[in-house]
Design brief:
A: alpha/beta, two-stranded antiparallel ribbon, 28% helix, B: alpha+beta, Butyryl-Coa Dehydrogenase, subunit A, domain 1, Butyryl-CoA Dehydrogenase, subunit A, domain 2, Butyryl-CoA Dehydrogenase, subunit A, domain 3, 11 helices, 10 strands, binds flavin-adenine dinucleotide
């Protein structure tokens, strides 16, 4: 079983600042972590490997310092790590990111399963996973809450939808995006931490991947950021206290005055 | 001179920070309140190889250096001193002693389990009537065929109530003073061996402290640790390891107290501004920060010497003496920064303050450290 896990290094804060001129994220001075959802994907991969055997390879596209995120996943127990990094990839949007990752994954050889996080906590689009599946022309199961296992080359999983959940079976290869209710990521072990330091991490540059000209980096990104703005922070709500019937009268009056009802 | 962590030490620190933040700090107050031995967390420490950090790779450890060993104690100390104490005893006082003095058979039998946290150990030196003057112990071991028969009581023994194996010191020759003491590896479950938990402690409530009662315990000769009559020397060498992690743990607890105090000082307003903006509060914070830095440097200096294979008994005593007193000063000041709220178990500085107290007492009181350091400085023993 060859399992690929796509991970992204993200800033360790929910307060991501945006460069108002370029419309991109400001990453300087913020400590970086593995996108929390991706740790769930790594955990799901390690569990499938424990069950079925095989190899877990983590891959990320990002600047050279993203190796730190890869090392964390090795410390958790992943076997191999691949960094896709080149100045030519700068400015990629979700389309060209998923295109580049799909091509990079193909260049690694055969795979049975690709796992992604449900979404990245900085970009938040949840598009890269599905994008990779489309570029590779394989099936996808998004928002996976539970992986039942793999039998006869078929994976069974539970997928969260607004009205409940769906049970899905799909033949391999398949891409799944993993939600937090799927499992609890393990912490890195001491031996894993030491092993990760010594692990050689493979780097793929633009020359190592079979990419069509014009389809990657800024040039290959159809998205144009027109304007970015910080939404007004919400004002705190108002508490209506007092006797129940008086409070209800007050509530109804307020809703009417504000033309809400 | 180099004051930087190596990449390995940096990585161990990062790993431990995450472990403590996720698995220790959120639960420490509850363990303390319930006087609950943190079994789940201790088992996880075993699974993650934390106990094995500084044990040889051949016996299931990671073979990391003395600074990594200190980092583990320091980070555990940040979250929970009881847990740090469990680590110190398991590794510094038991596993490292077996690694240094045990036979190959003993190492094979005990070290992998101690490293994996599937086996627990304790260190039994102190007795009801023999503390600082350890050589005055009354426990005896009398040769009988291929065994020794052990009798006596050990008092205040950390982990004793949960341990699978105890390093026990007893007199094989009552007339030979310190040279008549021998160390034994005593397995729990041997007939005549029992323990009684001690309750009502001021701090370290999540750690197990117990009395050991030995009533004609037959211990095979193969379980003598080191050679007969060398027990006191082994105990002193062991304490050298133990004191080192006590000191490191103190640095961690003190750092946690400072971190809590800084956060609180910025949030609490009095006289129209955060108390952090009052000069006398800044003085408290500055004094805490300097005190901690001094302690940390003493620990790392001792660790550096250990890494170089140099004898570091004096430096370890200095670190243990300084850091154990330092954490009490720092915890006192942290409570001061919190004002009345620091007196309540709603905030962690109250627990840090109580837990700090043990450090100037065990593994040699501050007075004993002063006497050892004094002897090194003056070449004159003041022990009487
Ligand atoms: C116009 C434009 C310009 C941009 N320019 C830059 C730029 O210059 N520099 C920059 O850093 N970002 C840039 N970005 C952001 C970048 O495109 C996104 O961060 C990236 O495509 C991932 O999208 P997301 O964060 O929404 O991830 P999601 O789609 O929410 O992520 C879902 C999952 O996909 C996987 N995944 C996502 N990203 C990666 C990755 N890089 N490697 C491996 N797996 C991944 C993970 O498993 C993740 O959990 C730009 C975006 C736009 C729209
Ligand atoms: C929670 C806890 C856990 C412990 N864990 C262990 C353990 O795992 N294993 C173990 O073997 N022991 C353990 N101990 C015992 C601890 O090491 C002893 O309490 C300590 O060595 C002091 O001995 P004592 O209590 O008998 O005090 P005493 O030796 O009676 O000392 C009382 C006071 O007299 C002072 N004093 C004594 N002699 C001198 C001197 N020559 N000059 C100046 N002052 C002197 C001391 O400094 C102290 O202030 C533990 C104790 C506690 C409280």
């Amino acid at each position: 079983m060859e399992i690929i896990v796509c991970i992204k290094q993200v800033p360790d804060t929910t307060e991501v600042k945006i460069d108002p001129e370029k419309g991109t994220l400001i990453r300087d001075g913020v400590p970086s972590i593995v996108n929390p959802f991706d740790e769930y994907a790594v955990e799901a991969a390690l569990r499938l490997k424990a069950e079925k055997g095989g190899k877990v390879t983590v891959i990320t596209m990002g600047p050279p310092q993203a190796v730190e995120a890869l090392r964390k996943c090795i410390a958790m127990g992943a076997d191999e790590a691949v960094l896709v990094s080149d100045r030519a990839f700068a400015g990629s949007d979700t389309w060209s990111t998923s295109y580049t990752l799909a091509k990079a994954i193909s260049s690694l050889g055969k795979f049975d399963l690709i796992l992604c996080g449900k979404q990245a906590i900085d970009g938040d689009t949840a598009q890269v996973g599905p994008g990779i599946a489309e570029h590779l022309k394989i099936s996808q199961i998004t928002y996976v809450q539970k992986v039942f296992g793999i039998q006869d080359n078929t994976v069974a999983a539970e997928r969260g939808v607004e009205s409940g959940y769906e049970l899905i079976e799909s033949p391999l290869p398949v891409l799944m995006t993993i939600d937090k209710s799927c499992c609890v990521p393990r912490l890195p072990s001491m031996m894993g931490t030491v092993k990760a330091l010594k692990k050689e991490i493979k780097t793929l540059t633009v020359n190592d991947i079979n990419l069509e000209p014009g389809l990657f980096g800024m040039e290959g990104s159809p998205t144009r950021v027109k304007r970015t703005f910080t939404p007004q922070p919400r004002k705190g709500g108002r508490m209506i206290t007092g006797e129940m019937h008086e409070a209800l009268d007050e509530l109804v009056k307020t809703l009417r005055d504000e033309k809400i009802v | 001179m180099n004051f930087s962590y190596t990449p390995e030490q940096e990585a161990v620190k990062g790993m431990m920070e995450e472990f403590v933040a996720k698995e220790v700090t959120p639960y420490a107050a509850q363990w303390d309140k319930e006087e609950k031995f943190p079994w789940d967390t201790v088992r996880k420490m075993g699974e993650l190889g934390i106990f094995g950090t500084a044990l040889p790779e051949a016996y299931g450890g990671s073979g990391l250096d003395a600074i990594c060993h200190a980092i583990v104690a320091e980070e555990l100390g940040k979250g929970c001193s009881s847990l740090r104490g469990i680590y110190s005893v398991q590794i510094s006082l038991v596993a490292k002693t077996i690694a240094a003095f045990g036979t190959e058979e003993q190492k094979q039998k005990y070290l992998p389990g101690l490293a994996a946290g599937t086996l627990f150990g304790c260190f039994g030196l102190t007795e009801p009537n023999s503390g600082s003057d350890a050589a005055s112990m009354l426990s005896t071991a009398v040769e009988d065929g291929d065994s020794y028969i052990l009798n006596g009581n050990k008092m205040w023994i950390t982990n004793a109530g949960i341990a699978d194996v105890a390093v026990i010191y007893a007199k094989t020759d009552k007339n030979a003073g310190p040279k008549g003491i021998t160390a034994f590896l005593v397995d729990r479950g041997l007939p005549g061996f029992s323990t009684k938990d001690i309750h009502g402690k001021l701090g370290l409530k999540a750690s197990n402290t117990a009395e050991i009662i030995m009533d004609n315990v037959r211990v095979p000769k193969t379980n003598v640790l080191g050679s007969v009559g060398k027990g006191f020397a082994i105990a002193m060498s062991t304490l050298d390891n133990g004191r080192y992690t006590v000191a490191a743990g103190c640095v961690g607890s003190a750092q946690a107290a400072l971190d809590y105090a800084k956060k609180y000082a910025k949030e609490r307003n009095q006289f129209g501004k955060p108390i952090a903006a009052h000069q006398l509060v800044q003085q408290l914070i500055a004094d805490m920060a300097v005190d901690i830095e001094c302690g940390r440097l003493l620990v790392y200096k001792a660790g550096h010497m250990k890494n170089l294979g140099q004898k570091s008994t004096k430096e370890v005593c200095m670190a243990k003496y300084y850091c154990s007193e330092m954490v009490n000063r720092v915890a006192y000041k942290a409570v001061q920064v919190f004002g009345g709220y620091g007196f309540s178990d709603e905030y962690p500085v109250e627990r840090i303050f109580r837990d700090a107290r043990i450090n100037t007492l065990y593994e040699g009181t501050s007075q004993i450290q002063q006497l050892i350091i004094g002897n090194f400085e003056l070449g004159m023993s003041a022990f009487v």
